[in-house]
Specification:
Layout (H helix, E strand, L loop, with lengths): L2 H16 L9 H8 L2 E6 L4 E3 L7 E7 L1 E7 L5 E8 L3 E2 L13 E4 L3 E7 H10 L1 H25 L4 H12 L9 E4 L4 H7 L4 H13 L3 E4 L2 E4 L2 H12 L2
Antiparallel strand pairs: 1-8, 2-7, 3-6, 3-8, 4-5, 4-7, 9-11, 10-11
Amino acid sequence: MSSDLADFRRVVVVSALRSSQLFAGLRGPEIEAVADLASFRSVARGEYLFHEGDRSEGFYVVQKGAVNVHRVNAAGKEQVIHVFRTGETFAEAALTSERGYPANARAQESSQVLLIQKEGFIELVKHQPEIAIRLLASMSSHLRVILGQLEDLTLKDVETRLVNWILKRCPYPRSTEPAEVRLPGTKRSLAAELGTVSETFSRTLAKLKLQGLIEVQGQAIHVLNPVRLGELLRQNLGE
């Protein structure tokens, strides 16, 4: 690799690391030390980065694209844990586990990620307490996402789960004025996150539209009256 190419690669790696919440704000020498452990990987849509139980090579930073982390139950049904996007990190939990990755990771779209090598990063953390604290914060954030999903999946039906999901992301849930909620990815991926399939998800959206509660345009859900949508949620919950 030529010196110019190596320098360019270094700049791109450091930039990608600084764009992630885990590493943003680290001092120059610290970010450079992490960059020494990073390698690029391009993945096509549908390609797996790893499968559940695979030996852990390290954890990942999404430079661009989206990565679907999921598990498959005994019945063969896929349950999405989270879709990670640009700047987000995932698989940190596997750093200290000898059991390998706890889930599967598949590119939801053509993506580029950085792999942070496991052994070297563990050694770095031993000498850089600030990185260790940031790592704990990142894993805590992932835990909150999972707990939120568990809460959503305990709701009794798809309509209730979807309405709850929309209201959680509605900027003014107590307003009677229209509001917009953006879909973070495809309808199919959101359906999987909500524990259902695309067909049921689409029928549920159509039902809410017929009730005059929402409109759907591309990646946007327009909540026509958040208060009325909240009333439907409380009714479904029996409150």
